[in-house]
Amino acid sequence: MKILMLTWEYPPRIVGGISRVVYDLSCRLIKDGHEVTVVTYREGNAPYFEVDKGVKVYRVDNYMINPNNFIDWIMQLNFNMIAKASEIISKERKI
């Protein structure tokens, strides 16, 4: 099965527990024979794309430099992640 996950944190970005859960779940799904792709936020010098223990990880920027608040920041990030996910789905098909 091809699985696509979207999350605002994935290693090396660790803010709370979501990063660890998505990472562990992704690795487990790979071991079970699934294809896993994660779309997440790019922080610092993290690469835009990498394969991490079999997991394809795409990172997107958030172009809102000075957001008014967290809601505005995450809304813009969601738009960017959806755009990347749409691109991946159109290329990969059957996710």
Describe this structure in words.
- With 95 residues, the protein is α/β, with parallel strands linked by helices.
- It has a single domain (2-92), classed as Rossmann fold (3-Layer(aba) Sandwich).
- Helix content is 39%, strand content 24%.
- The chain is built from 2 helices and 4 strands.
- The protein has helices at residues 18-31, 70-92; strands spanning 2-7, 35-41, 49-52, 55-60.
- The protein has a 4-stranded mixed sheet.
- It starts with a strand and ends with a helix.
- The model has no long low-confidence stretch (mean pLDDT 90).
CATH superfamily: Glycogen Phosphorylase B
Physical arrangement of strands within the biggest beta sheet:
1-2-4-3
Rg from C-alpha positions? 13 Å
Q: In the residues, how many domains can be counted?
A: 1
**End-to-end distance:** 7 Å
CATH level-3 fold name: Rossmann fold
Shape: globular
Biggest sheet overview: 4 strands, mixed
- Low-pLDDT segments, ≥5 res: none
Structure annotation, total helices = 2
Q: How large a portion of the residues is in β-strands, by DSSP E?
A: 15-25%
Secondary-structure element pattern, one letter each: EHEEEH
The computed structural class is alpha/beta
How many beta-strand runs? 4
CATH architecture: 3-Layer(aba) Sandwich
* CATH C-level class: Alpha Beta
The overall pLDDT average reads 90
